[in-house]
Amino acid sequence: MLPALAADFATTTGRSAQSISAFALAYGILQLLYGPFGDRYGKVRVIACATLACTVGSVAAALSPSLQWLVVSRALSGAAAAGIIPLTMAWIGDSVAYEGRQAVLARLLGATVFGMIAGQWMGGLLAETLGWRSAFMMLAIVFAACGALLLAREAKARRGEALHLPIKAGSLTMRLAAVVSAPWARTVLVVTAIEGALAFSTLAFIPSDLHLRFGLSMTSAGALVALYGVGGLAYSRAAKPLVQRMGEAGLARLGALLMAVAFATIAYATSWGWVAAACLVAGFGFYALHNTLQANATQMAPEARGTAVSLFATCLFLGQSIGVVGAAWMVDRFSAPAVFIVSAVGVLLLGFAFATLIQRRRSQ
Q: What pTM, to 2 d.p., does this model score?
């Protein structure tokens, strides 16, 4: 949408991108607040309210008379959307037995990846055909419908006393302390932050590296990197039999190995075709490892599951941010392939170490 926004508001594409930054920043910062709200007032209720708040942000964006208005509207949408995925994961943790939870989380993960891919495509299509405002109006309609359905479901559940957990008291500080006081929770959070740093530092610089090394346009390079998401979709379809056959530790090793091979392939690729295949493999590997972390995140503090999963999401976000900053420093002083090699070695060590810790914990 950025070119359309720049033309409509008579500004540059770079300034139009403030709307993206506003959403991402608000989304990352607000992650941590929704967990305690979900624990205290009910996860489905908070998800429904967050979804309806996204409706308000999307309508405001569609009606924006200026870029500044749009930026504020997208910040509101980001702040609201921050409560949806972490609390959904936490609700799955409340509702699904641990033995089958990873497969269900993989289905959620597949839906998320599909939504991201479809959203990028639909956003561009609507911007070109009906104008960028129509895309935000469509979002508003979808959010309003989903929010209303969730509220209706929650009301029905409360009338039948189904899926209703007791309201839990306690301040945000107390809930965070309850999570991080557990050694296994600290392990999962640290591994998640490192995973985010290693995986996304590579992902962020693949398009520019393809452009510089192989002369691909940025559009073509971006399309190749989209195969990362396709790999994630493939994993979501294969997750259930893989979990049953390999277990958590085996899946963590598989994911780390696939990512390491893929990142090394990208670093030493002699043509863009190798990079395309590697992005597909890397996506499958990342989601295999990340899905294992998700399952553990939902169980690391059952008494404060919403807070725990929100903290998990926050650590992933912070890891991504720090990783991209560190990778940018390496790219300026060395090269992008150097970043890919460091990530390959790092993720291999991380995945195998986490798998060993899982096995040790299970045996105890």
A: 0.73
